[in-house]
Amino acid sequence: MMSKCIFPHKSYLVLLLVVVGMLISVGTTYAGQATGDATTERLERVVDLDVDEWSFKWGDFDGPVHPSYDDSDWETVGTDHRWLPPNSKAWYRKWITIPEKIAGVDVRGSKVWLWMQFDDDGIVFVNGELVETSNQAEGRVAVLTESAEPGARILVTIQNINNAVSGSLESAELHSDRGEPVVLGIRRYLSALRQTSGLGFAGDNRLIRDRALTESVAMLDMAALDRGETDAFIASLDHAVERLAGPLDLIRSSTEPQLDEAARLLGELDELLATARERGIDISYPLVSRTVVNNFLTFARDDLGADESLTVLRGVAVADQLIAICRRASAETHRLLSDERFAANHRTPRYRTGTLEIRDGALYQGDRPVFLSGFGHFDQVRDDTPIFNDYGFNAIQIVIGPGGVVKRDSIDTTGIDNLVNDLDRAAEHNVAVDLLILDSFPGWPYDDEPGLRVEQTGSLCFNIEHPLARKVLRRYLEALIPPIAVHPALFSICLTNEPSYTDDGSISEREFHRWLMEKHGSIGALNTRYRTSYTGFDEAPLPTRAGIFDGDPPRPVWYDWCIYNQNRTYEHHRWLRDVIATMAPNLPVHVKIQGRVFDGEYPYSWGINPEDFTRLSTISGGDNHSYDQTALHREYAQGWRRQAMFYDFQRSVAPANPIFNSENHPIEDAVPIWVGSDHMRTMLWQGAIHGQGASTTWVWQRYLSQRGSFASNILTRPKCVDASGRTALDLMRLGDEIVTLQQARAEVAILFTPASIPQNEPYLDESKNAYEGLYFLDTPIRFVTDRIATRDISGYRVLVAPGNTYVADSTTGAITRFVQEGGTLLLVGDALTHDEYGRERSRGTTPILPQSAAQAPGTTWQVGAGRVVHVAASMEPKQYADKLDRLLDDVGVARKIRVVDHHQSRVWGVRTQTVERDGEYLIYLVNLLSRSQAVRLVADGPLGSVTDLLTSERSGPLLELKPLVPMVLSVQKL
């Protein structure tokens, strides 16, 4: 029997987590308002330690660290200020006057320090001297003085380093050792206060909560703080926190019966599964649910025993979900026992430890496709390997690095020996392993060669052009690869994690100028392309040091710098690949590049050419996300475009490679928003249809407290784990159908020209609009790169150039031939009007361009056997859809099945992919909108029976499509 405590049900309960999370993000102000007590407002002021209003100047230059430096012409900014470009530096300066009190406590004679957070890094100088910073509570600490004197002025200078996107001094707080216990105590109390304020109660239980809030405030001994009696004040804070535990105890006692009911239902399910197993029925699907419930019962009880209200509420949400999961699995098992057809359709082949072959862009064991599905990346995924098959999973990614292996004068094999044990366990339990091998670097080489250090974080935190780097890495690989090269559980090697690289040190400067000489041949040729008057290559500036972002594009030196940086980063990874191949020639490798191809201008400079990295080996590696949007009330229920677009790009440049997203992100880090099981299914199905052959999802690691990027991950969401395991089984069961759908022929492509990115960022937005418009026109989509264009694009009927302003002559020539030979070019805006260095192209000698800048957009003209259709720039997705729908019909692009509404009009938001086989249409179908849609399937001829292969249910051509419910339909042709 439930008590009077009223909790929201199902998804509403999880939405409560969102509310509480919002309370935390609002900050301590909410707590004061919720209790209506000025005491909490005073506490907030006591712990307001922010140091704001800094002098700021962008650039890498000497002088600011000296106290006598004049910064009077610098900009004044706050800690919320962000600056560009990436791969550059900026300066912050401030004279800090030591106050008499910090956190209400006298500071005279105490240690005073500055606590800071940087994006991405910072070097701190105090009174002109470099100081060693230390890590503390997800920030960095720099000591200003060991013995404070109120009124003393101290100069703090920070060189802020931006590796990616934008830079920032995100936080700066002034602390003292005497005041720190007070700060920690107050912040702990205010956190407990606002968490309790956010607990959802009604009736008498709400009065209990409100009384606890009021009484806790009354227990605070503010007079002791005024008298400087910090021990007495902190003791009162502790008592006040204890008073706030009462409402959580009420929640705990109300939830225990739900867990008991889930445990009882689990016992009933076990009896059903035993009966089905005795009859030889495949119980893979209900076993997923059984495994989830069994393990999450323990997780839920751990959560309920926690001190943090968010964690306790998480336990409540889990308890509610476990009952529903158990009931569904029991009903499913009853059907398996009673319906032979249903049972036969749900027999699922499984991966068994052994060799996987790559054929036609897919993984195979024997004659069956295999889809690897699982998780990464730390200790828990290793520990849970023995039960991964019960969850429905068959793959993990784990990590090792040279930092623990390569010593100055020896090799430590401890980590490698442990790795072999992990592989042995995975082999025993039919789990394929992807091994990430470079996420760290030893510290000792930096001491030996200071020039080895580069000022960035991540897996490439060393100078990749330094000879010592390769020496260390070769020693590492020669120790690591031979013991594991032919291990049956080892599926592949991931070379680096989310690589990004840049460096503008002396080696880079020399090599960049040498590269310019090799590329351009003469300084005269460079000057012609750059429209400059340099007398030597060494006069070309390094863009990370110069004001290259001042003024308008084009920026030819920035373009060349990006290409140079991409080339050297790729060459480094190719070297790693080749070293491994000497010891393990058949071992696939890949690189976990992030799916940022279309994100914006700045990722282009991070050293990653996505086309080169996709083609590096026989697997296309990546790190991508697609987040649930059902609770955000947006047009789409899922942020599908980024994943789909990146995968279609990878499939375009390396069609023979299966895609491996080895850090798949279906859930946004540390965001306690409701994530539905349908989102999980659709995200994984969308990936598979677009070429994903393997996935290890971030992250299989559970902590009791809500910590950093691990907070609110999938191991706090039983329905999401259940949906993931069931979808993994779906992909194995319907592997033949998925591979057939993956190989559907594309007749329309989008032109992708990287030269346009660093000089014309709006081009990327236009590309995304074009892709979104095409996505719901019932046809596959591919991309044409410069390299692809100059080889053969005759298989396409339509090529879309969405505002690609800056395009090489070789590519423009290839597109011209494509049109002359019968292709159709949709030319948007000022596409193709300039070469890669920003020089305007002659219209008179380029027949696919309008013959004058004044020519009205919207015109069409013949070029040889083909034609050019010119439209205005910056079309919205639905405008692209209208234009391209008619255009695809005009040129005869085959669309065997169309999805229409009851008016026979094109449906927006429904993705389909169709192939013909053996007298039927095979159709993948999913509604990506946030609302349901009634649709009809139409074809040139009559349609027969329709069967959803996922559910074994039959229907007609009329379908009610709920959001994010994928379908794989077999439609008979009459």
Summarize the structure.
The chain is of the alpha/beta class. The chain contains 28 helices and 37 strands. The protein is globular and about 90 Å long.
CATH topology group of the largest domain: TIM Barrel
Low-confidence stretches: 1-36
Q: Could you say what the CATH architecture of the largest domain is? A: Alpha-Beta Barrel
Taken together, the total number of domains comes to: 7
Mean pLDDT: 90
Question: Beta-strand percentage?
Answer: 15-25%
Largest sheet: 8 strands, parallel
- Tell me the overall shape: globular
Helix run count: 28
Estimate percent helicity. 25-40%
Count of beta strands: 37
Distance between the termini: 57 Å
CATH top level of the largest domain?
Answer: Alpha Beta
CATH superfamily of the largest domain: Glycosidases
**Strand order, largest beta sheet:** 20-19-18-17-16-23-22-21
Instruction: Compute the CA-based radius of gyration.
Output: 31 Å
Q: What structural class should be given to the helix and strand makeup?
A: alpha/beta
